[in-house]
Amino acid sequence: MTETSAWLIGRNALIAAIIVVVLNPLAIFLGYHISHSLSSPDLRIEYVRPEPQISLIQLNDNVFKSAVANAFLYAMLMRNLPRWCDSWIKTGEINKFCIPDSIQALDVVIRQIDAEKKAQSHNLKILRSWNGKGKLALTPVMFPDFFNLMTYAYKNKERAIGISQSTFQMATVFHNSMSNLRNELDNLKDVEEQRTGNVVFQVGILNAGDSDGVVLPNAQIKFGKLSLPLKQSVDNGFVVVKSHSFVEAKFVINEKSASQEARKSWQALVIKKVQKLFTIKIMTPTKSIEYSEQLPP
Question: Nearest-CA neighbor of 267 among 169, 198, 174?
């Protein structure tokens, strides 16, 4: 190797070393930010489902109170109504989508009362024809207490007959009350739904990132030149979206912060079933995310 070649090799090695020293901090900086970017949450809105709220239907007050005033009937109804549709028995106001399930529950109760009436009628015939001697074969009934009825019958036939007559008449009243309530619901099932003007926004949020993300409690919708503030429907407000997972958050209008003009305009659109285009904007600690959708007809 000549002296010149050795010098060239040494020079090139020195230049390479200098380049490594200069570029190494840059490489570290870029590597850090690329790694940080790849490990950060990547939140995006997959869908928005606006759900207009429906006004409850008021039941006829006399029909309703007649049906639920008796504790026995109230208990029978509560046993047969699905949990998601039992609030109307306390308020007298029913959501239209609960009417079919409630009619079905009433049909069950009416069949039970009809069976009770048949049993009471049968017992009356047996008691009236019984001579007071021998074994008494009565059909079990829900009311009065069957053991007490048998006891009364062996001690005082006429008293037992009087009790059975009273309970048969009571079962007839119960049947009429339940039938009237069923007819009331049957007449209401074709009533047109009335919107309240309020909307619940179901927002599907996907986190495609490698770390957990957070959706802040406040959001916003824009429609035309107007906007309304939103808030999450849960009290704590913040929704955590785990990495590579999906959640659905519910937002409602923040009535305290909404302007009267925007609120009235929005409610009018909802009630009139205008398919208005709107944009919802949710917030994270670092950015906002928008999604456009229409109100349902």
Answer: 198
Q: What is the DSSP string of 183-220?
A: HHHHHHTTSPP-EEEEEEEEEEEEE-SSS-EEE-SEEE
pLDDT band at 135 (very low <50, low <70, confident <90, very high): confident
Residues 220-229 pLDDT 10s: 999 999 999 9
Helices (H), the chain: 3-39, 61-68, 71-80, 88-91, 99-129, 146-155, 157-188, 260-271
- What DSSP state is assigned to residue 8? H
Structure token pair of residue 150: 């048998």
Q: How confident is the model at residue 20 (pLDDT cuts 50, 70, 90)?
A: low
pTM: 0.62
Taking only Cα atoms into account, the Rg of the chain, rounded to an integer number of angstroms, comes to 36
At residue 47, φ and ψ (nearest 5 deg) are: -160, 160
Give burial (CB, 10 Å; 0-12/13-18/19+) of 106: buried
d(CA 227, CA 250): 18
One CATH from 2.60.40, 2.40.10, 2.40.128, 2.30.30 for 43-54+195-294: 2.60.40
| Residue pair 102/81 in contact by the 8 Å Cβ criterion | yes
Cα 93 from Cα 103, distance rounded (Å)? 15
Q: Which residues pair with 140 in a beta bridge?
A: none
